[in-house]
Structures are given as structure tokens and as C-alpha cells.
Amino acid sequence: MNLGAPEIILILVALVLLFGAKKLPDLARGVGRSLRIFKAETSKMNDDDDKPTVVQTQPEAQQQPATPQQLQAAAPSPEPSPEEQARRLEEQAAKLRASAQADKRP
């Protein structure tokens, strides 16, 4: 999708008409914060995906019952589901909006 100068100017004029010139900096700041949070969360998810999973197996004859400490150490830490991550991001965005509103008030 190629946007030329006339299209960008038209979009900017529409934004000014919709939100007003005074609200645009706050809107841009909120969008920037949200994007930073989103990027941080997606990079964490990518880092989790990049970690190699090492599985060590022993021959069946040599396997021994695991102790409770070994089971606890071997248990994977529960990763939040995408729905849980989305809910947390929404909570963070709501907190950011609330703090932005509090900052605006004298």
C-alpha cells in the first residue's frame, strides 16, 4: 500500500477534525506507549519460542522413580495463555490511560 503526500495530508486533516489539535499529542503518546508494551510482550513470546527444549531420556532399565524435589524442578512453569496475556495488556493500557488522565489534571 503506497501512501503519497496527498493521502497522508488528508489523513492528518481528518485526525485533527475528529480529535482536535489539543488531544492529538495525548493520543499519539498513548498509542506509542501501547506499541512499546505490545512490542515488549511479543519479543518475550518470541524469546520463549527460541529457547531450545532439551529432552534427556534414559534406557528403561536404568530409569528410577523421581523424587518430589526432582518432579518439582522438572515441572514447567505455567506460561500464561494468549487470553491471559491479552487481559494483562488491557489492564496495563487501562492503568496507563488512568495515569495519563491524572497527569493532565492540575
Automatic annotation (TrEMBL):
Subcellular location as annotated: Cell membrane
Swiss-Prot/TrEMBL GO biological process terms: protein transport by the Tat complex
Highest taxon in the source lineage: Bacteria
Chief location category: membrane
Pfam families per the UniProt record, alphabetical: TatA_B_E
Topology within the bilayer: Single-pass membrane protein
Listed Basic and acidic residues bias regions: 84-94
Alphabetical keyword list: Cell membrane, Membrane, Protein transport, Translocation, Transmembrane, Transmembrane helix, Transport
Region Disordered, residue ranges: 40-106
One Gene Ontology term of the molecular function aspect: protein transmembrane transporter activity
Biased composition (Low complexity): 56-76
Subunit structure and binding partners: The Tat system comprises two distinct complexes: a TatABC complex, containing multiple copies of TatA, TatB and TatC subunits, and a separate TatA complex, containing only TatA subunits. Substrates initially bind to the TatABC complex, which probably triggers association of the separate TatA complex to form the active translocon.
Purpose of the protein: Part of the twin-arginine translocation (Tat) system that transports large folded proteins containing a characteristic twin-arginine motif in their signal peptide across membranes. TatA could form the protein-conducting channel of the Tat system.
Family, similarity comment: Belongs to the TatA/E family.
Protein's name according to its UniProt entry: Sec-independent protein translocase protein TatA
Lineage of the organism: Bacteria, Bacillati, Actinomycetota, Actinomycetes, Streptosporangiales
Annotated gene: tatA
